Amino acid sequence: MSFAFGVALFALGILVSVSLHEAGHMLTAKAFGMKVTRYFVGFGPTIFSFKRGETEYGLKGIPLGGFCKIVGMTPQDDDVEPGDEKRAMWRYPVWKRTIVMSAGSITHFGLAIFAAWLAAMTFGLPNPDFPRDEQQIRAEPAVIAIQDCVLPDTTYRECAAGDAASPAGAAGLQNGDRITSINGTPINNYGELLTTLRATTPGSTATIGYERDGQAGTTETTLATTKRPPIDNPDGPVTEVSALGVGLVLSTPGLVSYGPVEAVGATSTFIGDMAVATAKALQRLPEKIPALWTAITGGERDIDTPISVVGASVLGGEAVANNAWEIFIMLFISLNFFIGVFNLLPLLPLDGGHIAIAWFERARSWVYARLRRPDPGRVDYFKLMPFTYVVILIGGVFTLLTITADVVNPITLFPR
Questions:
Q1: 22 catalytic, yes or no?
Q2: Which of 14, 185, 247, 384 has its CA 20 to 30 A from that of 394?
Q3: Cβ contacts of 137 within 8 Å, gap of 6 or more
Q4: What are 130-167's pLDDT values in tens digits?
Q5: Which pTM was predicted?
Q6: How far apart are CA 315 and CA 411, in angstroms?
Q7: Phi, psi of 96 (to 5 degrees)
Q8: Distance between CA 42 and CA 107 in Å, rounded?
Q9: CA distances (Å), origin 357, targets 34, 54, 200, 378
């Protein structure tokens, strides 16, 4: 029940975000005097509508986005009534049109920043000092968490009958203990723990030195056998090695909370990091297509592959079901920021495409004026329609791939 509630709540959050996106276009257009004739939430058949002034507001039957109609977005639009010629959007200065067309993305950025600021004061934001690469993780103190079992190989799954019990648990070690030695070899960090275990014969008896609540102790246990690749080569050949049946407890918290003022700086840093990550993710989109197809056709789903709003909603449901509201909020922030950036790409029919054309027209007019040549006028959008259709087709195929992958082979954050 909580999963379904989480899915519905996240989907509602997306709908509200997109509706506010369109409201950003509408409000800025009205502020500049442009004529806005319609603002609707959703698509399809109209459930209800009302007219206030010159604008019709309403709700459609399919809650997938929304739209607003600004008169005369392009010179080729034929929706300009007599007497409204001066209010057609394309006649306004390029800076005003830029503000109107970017207002949707600015709204998404505003939602992401505000949600991140609230998160900074409540759940916390990702700790910039949190270890993120293998070298940093291995440098952490060898503070352990007892695992339920030792899996026989690198395939992650729930423990099953026949899996070896955790040798650490059998020896009486507890969560939070710090391993200090194995068979007399000092252990200073998690990397040394792994290295020493790999050098120990699988199935042999080992003497484990540990520290608990400041008190030193020792215990003995029989090491389990598992299969792992070399420590310095995760893609190398898998061989049998010793296992203690423990995980690492990181000494650095993953999230850090701030006061209202400190949260401003922390939010700025977080959003800056997200901007860099989003740019890298957009660059990697083409190379992720084969991975999506592999996931659809029965292969393992790469957690780094793109997800659709369907997949994001499912992850939101998982987060709520597991009481991980911080993940729910982070998903909301990430999705809004990504949509904001994506909509500014200089491609029609995206908002960024209209902005790029407006500035191209302005630059071209300036150049022609310097050359004392007649102004070439406005761009003919009809000539750009083939390119627009290609973008729509590629976007549609990509959306279909992500939705299909999210349905048949979804990314999951928690074991099921």
A1: yes
A2: 14
A3: 131, 190, 248, 250
A4: 777 778 888 888 898 999 888 888 777 788 888 888 99
A5: 0.81
A6: 8
A7: -70, -40
A8: 18
A9: 19, 28, 66, 9
